[in-house]
Amino acid sequence: MIFALIGNQNCGKTTLFNQLTGSNQHVGNFPGVTVEKKEGNIRQHKGVSVVDLPGIYSLSPYTAEEVVTRDFLLREKPDGIINIVDATNIERNLYLSLQLMELNIPMVLALNMMDEVRASGNSIDINKLQDELGIPVVPIAASKNEGVAELVDCAIETAGKQIRPKRMDFCSGEVHKAIHALAHLIEEKAQAQQMPTRFAATKLVEGDEPTIQQLGLTENEIDILGHIVHEMETALGTDREAALADMRYAYIEQVCAKTVIKAGQTKEQERSLKIDAVLTHKIWAIPIFLGIMLLVFYLTFGLIGAVLSDWFSLGIDAVTGAVDAWMTAVGVSAPIHSLVIDGVFAGVGSVLSFLPTIVTLFFFLSILEDSGYMARVAFVMDKMLRKIGLSGRSFVPMLIGFGCSVPAIMATRTLSSERDRKMTILLTPFMSCSAKLPIYAVFTAAFFPENGAIVMMALYVMGMIIAILYGLLMKNSLFKGNPVPFVMELPAYRFPSARSVVLHMWDKAKDFLRKAFTIIFLATIVIWVLQNFDFRFQMVSNSADSMLAAIGHVVAPIFAPLGFGDWRAATALMTGLTAKEAVVSTFAILMGVGSEPGALVPILPQLFTPLSAFSFLTFTLLYMPCVAAMAAVRRELGSGWQALLAMLMQTCIAWVIAFIVFHIGGLFFI
Fold first, then answer.
1. How far apart are CA 123 and CA 245, in angstroms?
2. Is the pLDDT of residue 11 over 70?
3. CB-based burial, 46-72: b 16+ in 10 Å, e otherwise
4. In terms of Cα–Cα distance, which of 485, 534, 350, 562 is closest to 62?
5. Is the distance from CB of 657 to CB of 463 less than 8 angstroms?
6. Which of 379, 387, 391 is nearest to 421 (CA)?
7. Among the listed ranges 26-35, 156-165, 236-245, which one has the minimum average pLDDT value?
8. What is the rounded CA–CA span in Å between residue 375 and residue 384?
9. Out of 103-107, 150-154, 349-353, 640-644, which region has the weakest mean confidence (pLDDT)?
10. Which H or E run includes 565?
11. Rounded average pLDDT over 553-570
């Protein structure tokens, strides 16, 4: 038995899903798209599973989430629907419920957050609401696990007995005439496509193109459809979509008038209004947000994350040391010993050391998201981002990109439009990730010791400016059109549940390890082989004689116009594809100064002038990200070729900007 869990965004759907499934869940993507799909077995009910569908507001195929949800319901035909509704905002939530009822699938309405309704002195007549809607209604408080067991029992009984909605016809007047006229016209075709007739007729009134194509309407039938809709619009003096919306909300108002008694706003809503007066203030909203994120980044990449990463690194070092000692004791051959210790353990260990940082970042972001604050951020930033063709939702992934590109690219899954999502994926790597900080630190110490802060700020600002210009270019070329209209509920501020935050962190940690870890593992082996063998596959004692150095000599002329044509600079940039920190360690190895970054400061002027050093920093800032981020781009775009072209385009932009910096700078500096 399979249930579809459906509801609006911020209605407590994820909390309910976690209560239903516990740890018996797995995350993947829907076939052919990158919209996240969660499935799980309902606890204590063998053979009963639930699919957590994306949060949506309607079944119109406008966003990727709506398309996925509608296709799942129509094609996969679940045994039942669990429709979760925010009881504190029941009028808006029931709009989706009425559309779901038209599908004629056994359905139970989970009335969530009833604890908040009671606390405010409000009340809902559950029995009367059940009679008015014609479907079972179960009051719950998912965050406290109240009523969840009763909900499961009711859902299993409803689906097992195939109890379908008793009422699907809640229209009147001109809309009623149009829907029923079309229902008679398409009844046979709808049945042939196994599509509910009422749902199909309603979609035709809306002008839903996928439904017209699926039903295979003839030109004559399409003409009749046009006449029926035109008569309805003329009679009502409004357009087809507004007519249907008015019809549904009119019915919802009638139902709520009979069943909902409001003594006032809930305490959470009153508290949210007071907080929003400050956090969404037209002047102070952005400074406050920047302050909050500065604190998050300080805690993640400094106070907490750095300490956890250091502890984790100590553990990795201990394991590496133990394996190293064991391999030495048993006399493992030198090449294999070097491969395992200098290749696999060094490469994979450097990635694993970032895991605490990733988890810490998602801990804070999960709190901000579950509390309702991130919805406000998207709302505040929408106006600014719309100028480059994106909506406010794109801001959060781009912001995360200043910490690490991998979780930032993964975070684009929250975007409702495929167009917006792809644009954000392509722009995010231009944000300067924290892995580039060691490079900046070494080069500013070597060449700009008195102006280090200004140089660092210039690099960060440059990345943002290039991203804006690239966004404008894509808006007017590859991604023509406007961003999705920004429809978002600002939920009441709530304290996040510890269970939800922990599960969110665990999901991201698993995804990071499973997807990125394998790519890094393979890349480190390749880099080790290239750095330790020549083209005759003889092991070399000097890395300058290796295949990697030879490749560096071939690639170096490409960078000569940028001011750094030395093979060691080219080699460092190539190894930087495994992890940006590798740029510094590669310079240290190739120039024979050991692994301490500070030792490079007096040596680097042998390869660079201050101008060519800034050109190198510019290229490092903008060229393609590390392999973990590239793997994330490939996974989210769903195409290796698209990801490769995106990375080549980004590198070409980096080359052009570094070229401009070097040659225009040469007019002013020697």
1. 26
2. yes
3. eebbbbbbbbbbbbbbbbbbbbbbbbb
4. 485
5. no
6. 391
7. 26-35
8. 15
9. 349-353
10. none
11. 89
Return the residue matching tokens 């009051």. 139
Enumerate the H helices of 331-451 as residue ranges.
Answer: 334-338, 346-352, 355-371, 373-386, 395-400, 405-410, 418-427, 437-447
The residue-averaged pLDDT of 109-135 equals: 89
Indicate the burial class of 176 (C-beta count within 10 angstroms; 0-12, 13-18, 19 or more): middle
Which tokens is 529 given?
């082989």
Inter-residue contact 301 to 403 (CB < 8 Å): yes
Other beta carbons less than 10 A from residue 169's beta carbon: 13
Q: Which of 575, 565, 582 is nearest to 530 (CA)?
A: 575
**Bridge pairing between strands 25-29 and 2-7:** unpaired
Q: Percent of the chain, pLDDT > 90?
A: 17
Q: Which burial class, exposed, middle or buried, applies to 476 when counting CB atoms under 10 A from its CB (0-12, 13-18, 19+)?
A: exposed
Residue 30 has pLDDT above 60, yes or no: no
Burial of 495 (0-12, 13-18, 19+ CB in 10 A): exposed
What pLDDT shows up at residue 127?
93
Least confident of 99-103, 167-171, 223-227: 167-171
Contact 144, 112 (CB under 8 A): no
- β-bridge partners, 6: 83
Burial (CB count within 10 angstroms: exposed 0-12, middle 13-18, buried 19+), residue 529? middle
Tokens representing residue 476 in the block: 């007017």
pTM for the structure as a whole: 0.64
Rounded distance between C-alpha atoms, residue 196 and residue 188, angstroms: 11
**What is the distance between the alpha carbons of residues 391 and 42, in angstroms, rounded to a whole number?**
36
Pair 369, 515: CB distance under 8 Å? no
For residue 631, give the nearest of 649, 646, 612, 613 by alpha carbon. Answer: 646
**How remote is the C-alpha of 2 from its chain's centroid?**
26
Residue 482 or 388, more confident: 388
Mean per-residue pLDDT of the chain: 81
Please give the Cα distance from 419 to 552 (Å, whole number): 38
**Torsions phi, psi for 533 (to 5 deg):** -130, 150
Between 525 and 238, name the one with better pLDDT: 238
Q: 637 CB contacts (<8 Å, ≥6 apart)?
A: 34, 422, 425, 643, 646
